[in-house]
Each structure stands twice: as structure tokens, then as C-alpha cells.
Amino acid sequence: MKWGVLVAVLALGGCASVTDIEHTIPTLNVISGKKPDAYAQCLVQQLSKTRNDPQIEPHKDGLRIIVPQKLTSNPTAVIDIEERSGGSSIKVYESMSNVPVRPGDIRQSATHCISGE
């Protein structure tokens, strides 16, 4: 029964679009000393360990990274990286932000790259 509920939640999470995801409350909202390009490069490198390549596009004063789901190319997270004086402002939006059993690789990668190598 528990597995059925989990599968249903994960299947429904695949229906979200980038617009739907970006209208959720950020699951991470931080500032980094890294410039947007350096942060994005670190994040893509970290995410490549668990997912297919994300889509990177210019957005406002920085970059937007659209992270695919693990099994499909549908988006599961949107990461906005905006340039600030001396670094970047980072906001992570996840499609299943209110589900406590969601995969943690996106948040771990985003947190690692704040000041990690």
C-alpha cells in the first residue's frame, strides 16, 4: 500500500511544467559568494552524478537551470541564479516541494555548491 502511494505521488509529480514549479515556494533561498556562471558549473557537475544534463538558459540578471526528473526529461526543479554584488542569489523550486520523501539530490547539490569546491 505504501509503495502504491509513493508511486502515485511520483507519477503525479511528472505533470508539472516550469511555470507550475516556479510558482511554488522556494525550498532553498540562499546567497553564495560565487558568480552565477561558477555556481551553475558546480551545480551541473554535481547533478550529473544522479541525473541527465539540465537545461541552462539566461534569466534576468543571471541563469536559470531546469533540472529533469530521474527517469524522464520532464522538469522536476527550477533553479534561479541571479547576480548580486560579490556573488549570487540562488532560489531552488521543486515540483514536489510539499512531499517529504522527494529525492534529496537537488537540494544536496545546490547546498554543496554554495561555498563548496
Topology:
Layout: H1 2-13, H2 18-22, E1 28-32, H3 36-47, E2 55-59, E3 62-68, E4 75-84, E5 87-94, H4 105-115
Antiparallel strand pairs: 1-5, 2-3, 3-4, 4-5
Helix pairs in contact: 3-4
What would you say this structure looks like, in words?
With 117 residues, this protein is α+β, with helices and mostly antiparallel strands. The chain has a single domain (2-115), classed as Double Stranded RNA Binding Domain. Helices cover 34% and strands 30% of the residues. The chain is built from 4 helices and 5 strands; from the N terminus they run H-H-E-H-E-E-E-E-H. It has helices spanning 2-13, 18-22, 36-47, 105-115; strands spanning 28-32, 55-59, 62-68, 75-84, 87-94. Strands 1-5-4-3-2 form a 5-stranded antiparallel beta sheet. Mean pLDDT is 85; it is low at 5-13.
List keywords for this structure.
117 residues, alpha+beta, Double Stranded RNA Binding Domain, 5-stranded antiparallel beta sheet, 30% strand, globular
What is the N-to-C order of secondary-structure elements (H for helix, E for strand)?
HHEHEEEEH
Spans of at least 5 consecutive residues whose pLDDT stays below 50 are 5-13
CATH architecture: 2-Layer Sandwich
The first-level CATH class is given as Alpha Beta
| Classification by helices and strands | alpha+beta
What is the radius of gyration? 14 Å
The count of β-strands is: 5
Number of helices: 4
Anisotropy-based shape:
globular
Largest sheet: 5 strands, antiparallel
- Termini Cα gap: 42 Å
